[in-house]
Amino acid sequence: MLFPPSGRRSFLKRSLLVTLAVGGSGFACAHELMAAVSPTRRLSLYHLHTGEKLTITFRDPKGNHIPPALAEINRLLRCHHTDEIHPIDPDAIDYLSLVDSKLGGGNEFHIISGYRSLEYNKRLLRQGRQVAPRSLHLVGRALDVRVHGISTANLRRAALDLKLGGVGYYPRSDFVHLDSGAFRAW
After folding, report:
1. Domain covering 8-185, topology
2. In the chain, N or C: fewer CB atoms in 10 Å?
3. What is the sign of the dihedral through the CA atoms of 114, 116, 121 and 124?
4. Is-above-0.70 flag for pTM?
């Protein structure tokens, strides 16, 4: 297994954080706060390079990841240059879902880049593109996204407010990088 299991407890902690970030602290007690968090999670994705779309529930009502759904997400987020499929870190998928919640939910994320093969990453470097030689895209832990109708500045702000992973802001290229690494921003 490439990634440690993302348990329900970890998900609930993150859900608690996003609920506080989205809704403030207007709950009378922790029980009310947790009752407001739905463990079922859904994402809508559109890959700009392949034209493929996917709207999928990837966490069940108990908060567990749904393996066939993760496999479909892995396929959609494959390297569009080589068609190589690589597992995407469930924490990166959860992060994207929490950003969606912060933005009001139900958004379709336009994927610029998910998994990136070493071959494709080297090609981008040779072309002088600004990609990291040891990018988290290479291990399925990063996503470059935008949302139609939401500015990348607002998308960035939503991700930064969560303080869960890496957030890169590329306003000229009109996308935000999200990753499941340590919290940092650039």
Report:
1. Muramoyl-pentapeptide Carboxypeptidase; domain 2 (3.30.1380)
2. N
3. negative
4. yes
pLDDT in tens, 125-144: 999 998 888 899 999 999 99
State how far the Cα of 118 lies from the Cα of 9, in Å rounded to an integer. Answer: 34
Structure tokens given for 77: 């987020």
CB atoms within 10 A of CB 113: 24
Domain limits, the chain: 8-185
By CB atoms closer than 10 A (0-12, 13-18, 19+), residue 66 is middle
Do 174 and 112 touch, CB atoms closer than 8 A?
no
* Distant-in-sequence, close-in-space partners of 49: CB < 8 Å, separation ≥ 6: 80, 112
CA proximity to 138, closest of 89, 76, 71: 89
- Which among 152, 146, 71 has a CA at the least distance from the CA of 112? 146
Q: One-letter amino acid identity for 12?
A: L
Give the pLDDT confidence of 66-117 residue by residue, as tens digits.
Answer: 999 999 999 999 999 999 999 999 999 999 999 999 999 999 999 999 999 9
- E-state strands within 13-107: 41-47, 53-59
Nearest alpha-carbon partner for 93 in 131, 154, 145? 145
